[in-house]
Amino acid sequence: MLIDTHCHLDAAEFDTDRDAVHAAALAAGVKQIVIPSVTVDGLNRLKICVARYPGCVAAYGIHPLYVMQANETDIATLAHWLRMENPIAVGEIGLDHFVTEIDYARQEWFFVEQLKLAKQFDLPVILHVRGAIDPILKQLRRFKLKGGIAHAFNGSRQQADEFIKLGFKLGFGGAMSYEGSTRIRELATTLPLESIVLETDAPDIPPVWLNRGRNTPAELPRMAALLAELRGLTLAEIATVTSANADSALPRLTG
């Protein structure tokens, strides 16, 4: 059985067939799906989603690409949800320096405030790290958190090693299916297997075989098979180790 450590099953892209998407994932052998929030306004929607679908669990946070529509009072609201709802992590949080039309100072303020909440509630974090790995590492060294997952990792080996030293696992998914993604494929092949977790980021980051179509959590077994091929291991070995890694990164997965 496999764990999808990052999937936005609550997204509008699944509104017409969410039941079928979830059923297909279970049938494919995906036993758990971690669903991180992106806005405070979506927290109740996410709560309903995880209550409806067996194996789904929630992380609560404000995504860095949504900070321009967030209010500073949302931090207090988020704190309330973390206190009352017992999520498995604070997420999806972080920084995104790939997109240029966002106030980076505002991004960093929301990131730091959410790191403070993770520290307060002794929770791991699910990190969005696109184009901003070094400033994220700087803040993680400052706060010394419980660990978590660097989602959709696309940094250098040196940066990967720094996350691992801080107790983080690194998320790999559809991006490693592209032959042109040489750095990601090299990392997926050579990093300690104990540092890797699997994810889809559905409906985003579709693997090459979907031809830019909508991604779903049912694609995770094929991504696991690809990782097994890259590393010269069996699918069963990949499933066992990556699931154990997810449990280690997110202890509340196992209760």
UniProtKB/TrEMBL annotation:
Q: Binding of a divalent metal cation 1: at which residues? A: H6, H8, E92, D201
Q: What are the recorded GO MF terms, alphabetically?
A: hydrolase activity, acting on ester bonds; metal ion binding
UniProt KW keywords: Hydrolase, Metal-binding
Q: Which domain of life is it from?
A: Bacteria
Give the binding site residues for a divalent metal cation 2.
Answer: H128, H151
Q: Which InterPro entries match?
A: DNase_TatD-rel_CS, Metal_Hydrolase, TatD-like
- CDD domains membership: TatD_DNAse
Which family is annotated? Answer: Belongs to the metallo-dependent hydrolases superfamily. TatD-type hydrolase family.
Q: What is this protein called?
A: TatD family hydrolase
Q: What is the lineage of its organism?
A: Bacteria, Pseudomonadati, Pseudomonadota, Betaproteobacteria, Rhodocyclales
